[in-house]
Amino acid sequence: MPGVPALQLLDTDSLLSDEEREIRDVARRIADEKVRPYVADWYERGTLPARQLAKEFGAVGLLGMHLTGYGCAGASAVAYGVTCMELEAADSGVRSLVSVQGSLAMYAIWRYGSEEQKRRWLPPMASGDVIGCFGLTEPDHGSDPASMTTRAIRDGDGWVLRGTKMWITNAPVADVAVIWARADEGVVGFAVPLDTPGVTVNEIQRKLSLRASLTGEIVLDDVRLPESARLPEARGLRAPLSCLTEARFGIVWGALGAARDCLETAIAYACEREQFGKPIAAFQLTQAKLATMAVELNKGFLLAMHLARAADAGTLRPEMVSVGKLNNVREALAIARECRTILGANGISGEYPVMRHAANLESVLTYEGTSEIHTLVIGQALTGISAFS
């Protein structure tokens, strides 16, 4: 970078402990070595070597890193956050692989599973030998999971599952899915091996966003499961929603990584690109764009840091995460779009990461809760009145 790095405008490194900086640097190194040289090609081809990457990430302790025991690293929320930031600086799809594995599938088993389930699934998931996914969203039920139509029916000593889950990250390559269904007693969860008879996984093709991510549909056609597959501590819709809060926390940080990568690319480009006899970075309008984006990036980092410290202190509330997700993704997308204008025609080229980040952030804007949903969560926190129904 020709000047002060964009995210160091406020000396944000000083807010991290030595251990947190070391973990961030490990995540940055693995992203630089294992993702950046190849991700433009993966994106163009609509693929991802998920199993290879999972083992690479597992080898350095990035999968389920904020969980304790069962082979998990037990890192701080801040350390997990900066890891998400570094991975998403490479690509949102790669961060999605890690956050779905750790914050959704592994967290659900860690928080709500039996001791037997934890011992069976968590160690190989932490190492990357087993990949998980999280089946909550349905074709007709995204923002309103309470209306899910997937059913879990008691059958003797076991269960039968019927239904369809849609837009499930990691599903095409996953070994186990955490599936949420409605039973007579309310919403229940299951750890479902995806080689169980009656389970069909169809990969979703022709995506124009998150192309370096594997997304699928899971069809459950009279899938018979033993009682031991049910997550015994998961009771009601609060269980899957708590998992979503975990995942949204990672997005608060991850979006900053995409924004930072766009802004650093734009600054470097503006300092090299000459028009009218001087670098375009020398023009006031360009500097105004860069300064505005850097301010928003640093504000987003301070917000993410506050949420992470609250998480480590045990005081983080869901509406706080909604503030972070709403703000940071919205600002990251605005930064990506503005950076595209600085690069001009080159901004749409796959030789630069900016348009790829912008396209990915269109998905990040709506998954794990749309901006509208998070706005209403905040509104309910402020007024005490729910506007959802």
Structure in words:
By secondary structure, the chain is of the alpha+beta class. The protein is built from 11 helices and 11 strands. The strands form 4 sheets. Strands 4-5-9-8 form a 4-stranded antiparallel beta sheet, covered by helices on one side. A 3-stranded mixed beta sheet has the order 3-6-7. Strands 1-2 form a two-stranded antiparallel ribbon. Strand 4 and strand 5 form a beta hairpin. The relative contact order is 0.12.
Q: Tell me, rounded to a whole number, the average pLDDT.
A: 96
The end-to-end span amounts to 50 Å
> Uncertain regions: pLDDT < 50 for 5+ in a row?
none
Sheet with the most strands?
4 strands, antiparallel
Gyration radius from CA atoms, angstroms: 21 Å
Helix-strand sequence: HHHEEHHHEEEEEEEHEEHHHH
Provide the descriptors you would attach to this structure in a database record.
389 residues, alpha+beta, 3-stranded mixed β-sheet, single chain, 11 helices, 4-stranded antiparallel β-sheet
Lay out the secondary structure.
Elements: H1 18-34, H2 39-45, H3 50-59, E1 68-69, E2 72-73, H4 77-90, H5 92-112, H6 115-127, E3 132-135, E4 151-155, E5 158-169, E6 176-183, E7 186-193, E8 199-203, E9 215-226, H7 238-272, E10 274-275, E11 278-279, H8 284-313, H9 318-343, H10 354-366, H11 371-383
Parallel strand pairs: 3-6
Antiparallel strand pairs: 1-2, 4-5, 5-9, 6-7, 8-9, 10-11
Helix pairs in contact: 1-4, 4-5, 4-7, 5-6, 5-7, 7-8, 7-9, 7-10, 8-9, 9-10, 9-11
Give a brief outline of the structure.
The chain is of the alpha+beta class and about 400 residues long.
